[in-house]
Amino acid sequence: MPKEKNKMTLGVNIDHIAVLREARKINDPDPLMALAICAQNGADQITIHLREDRRHIHDEDARKIIQNSPLPVNLECSINQEMIDIACKLQPHRVTLVPEKREEVTTEGGLDVIGQAAAISDAIEQLHDSMIPVSLFIDPTIESVTMSKEMNAEMVELHTGSYANLYAMLNSSLPYTHHSIFGLDLPRHELQVRIENAVEMLDSSAKKAKDIGLEVAAGHGLNYLNLSPILEIDEIIELNIGQSIIARSVFTGLAEAVSDMKRLCVR
Ligand code: PXP
Question: I need a surface site. Which of 114, 191, 192, 200 has the fewest CB within 10 A?
Answer without folding.
Answer: 114
